[in-house]
């Protein structure tokens, strides 16, 4: 089996020759650490999962399956001009290509502070609406035809379309706090943004799906935190569920039947709503947020699951890694509908030797995939 065949079979609860092992990505800091711990100099770092697919990158070195996305421009055309707004000895304030004003602390890698977004009111949205929805022909990357042909005709990379979801997209326009309050203060604005987005996605991706015949659709949300969702299930049902149902119906009509949502945090209260909305698969199932994929499998036998391996167990000794894999893999692989992955990107606290052991150990569970 090649990687695409293995992934498709695993997601459809069919036997495979060995576990489908995916990872979302490797932080640059992880690569730099590993270069000092035995990673061959010939292995390169690449975080470009949309176009270039180097043969000597980390994924291929470890034999780990890579996601390949076709991602179109969903936001402003023309984009805002990136500019420095203010700078001190401690931080730099910029306005980025989406018009968001950010404060970035100097001297360390951290999440920036989000200070201001372009859209605050219905009037703001109408001001920018044409820049968000127009110029459809320019929303395809310049290398689109080359990339579509490459992705369609290979078997090493699992191929998906990638959209920002019906919470994630308005959040990127307004910020989390304003999105949450606007659901109550001006619900018509949220309905309009989401309806515009789903219609635009359908129009844009019909060509892409026909051209590349993707293995899955990927919807980025990140709408939960450690203690649960950022919105109530009732608010999800009111604003996001109709868009999910419309978009997933379109995907199935186009032949895409593996529909993945990515959200960190404790997602348990939203799983029934995603399923009602036509979603078939979730990731990454953060263990620190209280998620246990074995319990999720018990509660939702038909849900496709990716991830759920506690990344922090790879920071310790090999026994901790072995115990974590034995906690998850026999149950999940024997029942199917599962692909192995950490519960987030591969971070810099993981030693190179430990990740090598983790990769090799996963292969030893092949007996459970031949049901």
CATH top-level class of the largest domain: Alpha Beta
Largest sheet: 7 strands, parallel
The residue fraction in helices comes out at 40-55%
Q: Count of helical segments? A: 14
Write the CATH architecture name of the largest domain: Alpha-Beta Barrel
The overall strand count is: 13
CATH topology of the largest domain: TIM Barrel
Can you put this structure into words, describing what you see?
This protein has 371 residues and is an alpha/beta fold. The chain has two domains: 3-75 and 119-369, TIM Barrel (Alpha-Beta Barrel); 81-117, no CATH class. The protein is 40% helix and 14% strand. The chain contains 14 helices and 13 strands. The chain has helices at residues 3-11, 28-35, 58-62, 122-133, 144-152, 168-174, 176-185, 187-212, 233-239, 241-253, 271-276, 293-299, 318-335, 352-363, and strands at 66-70, 83-87, 91-95, 101-105, 113-116, 157-164, 216-220, 224-225, 228-229, 259-262, 281-283, 304-306, 338-339. The protein has a seven-stranded parallel beta sheet with strand order 1-6-7-10-11-12-13, with helices on both faces. Strands 2-3-4-5 form a four-stranded antiparallel beta sheet, with no helix packed on it. α13 packs parallel to α14 (352-363). The chain is globular.
Secondary structure layout plus pairing:
Elements: H1 3-11, H2 28-35, H3 58-62, E1 66-70, E2 83-87, E3 91-95, E4 101-105, E5 113-116, H4 122-133, H5 144-152, E6 157-164, H6 168-174, H7 176-185, H8 187-212, E7 216-220, E8 224-225, E9 228-229, H9 233-239, H10 241-253, E10 259-262, H11 271-276, E11 281-283, H12 293-299, E12 304-306, H13 318-335, E13 338-339, H14 352-363
Parallel strand pairs: 1-6, 6-7, 7-10, 10-11, 11-12, 12-13
Antiparallel strand pairs: 2-3, 3-4, 4-5, 8-9
Helix pairs in contact: 6-7, 7-8, 8-10, 13-14
């Amino acid at each position: 089996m090649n990687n695409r065949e293995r992934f498709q079979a695993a997601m459809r609860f069919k036997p495979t020759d060995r576990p489908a092992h995916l990872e979302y990505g490797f932080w640059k800091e992880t690569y730099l650490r590993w270069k000092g711990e035995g990673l061959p100099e010939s292995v390169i770092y690449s975080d470009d999962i949309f176009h270039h697919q180097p043969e000597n990158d980390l994924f291929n070195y470890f034999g780990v399956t890579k996601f390949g996305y076709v991602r179109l421009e969903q936001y402003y055309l023309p984009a805002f001009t990136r500019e420095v707004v203010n700078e001190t000895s401690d931080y730099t304030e910029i306005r980025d290509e989406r018009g968001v004003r950010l404060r970035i602390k100097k001297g360390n890698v951290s999440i920036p502070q989000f200070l201001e977004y372009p859209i605050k009111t219905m009037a703001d949205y109408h001001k920018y609406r044409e820049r968000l929805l127009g110029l459809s022909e320019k929303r395809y990357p310049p290398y689109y035809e080359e990339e579509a042909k490459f992705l369609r005709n290979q078997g090493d990379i699992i191929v998906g379309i990638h959209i920002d979801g019906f919470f994630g997209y308005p959040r990127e326009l307004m910020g989390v706090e304003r999105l949450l309050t606007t659901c109550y203060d001006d619900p018509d604005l949220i309905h309009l943004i989401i309806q515009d987005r789903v219609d635009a996605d359908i129009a844009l991706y019909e060509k892409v799906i026909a051209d590349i015949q993707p293995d899955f659709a990927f919807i980025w949300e990140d709408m939960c935190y450690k203690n649960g969702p950022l919105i109530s299930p009732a608010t999800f049902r009111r604003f996001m569920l109709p868009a999910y149902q419309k978009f997933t119906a379109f995907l199935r009509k186009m032949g895409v039947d593996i529909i993945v949502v990515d959200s960190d945090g404790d997602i348990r209260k939203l799983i029934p709503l995603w399923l009602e909305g036509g979603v078939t698969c979730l990731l990454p199932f953060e263990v620190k947020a209280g998620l246990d994929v074995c319990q999720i499998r018990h509660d939702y036998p038909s849900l496709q699951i990716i991830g759920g391996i506690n990344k922090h167990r790879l920071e310790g000794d090999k026994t901790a890694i072995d115990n974590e894999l034995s906690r998850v893999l026999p149950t999940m692989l024997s029942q199917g509908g599962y692909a192995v992955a950490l519960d987030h990107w591969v971070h810099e606290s993981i030693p190179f030797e430990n990740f090598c052991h983790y990769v090799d150990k996963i292969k030893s569970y092949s007996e459970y995939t031949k049901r």
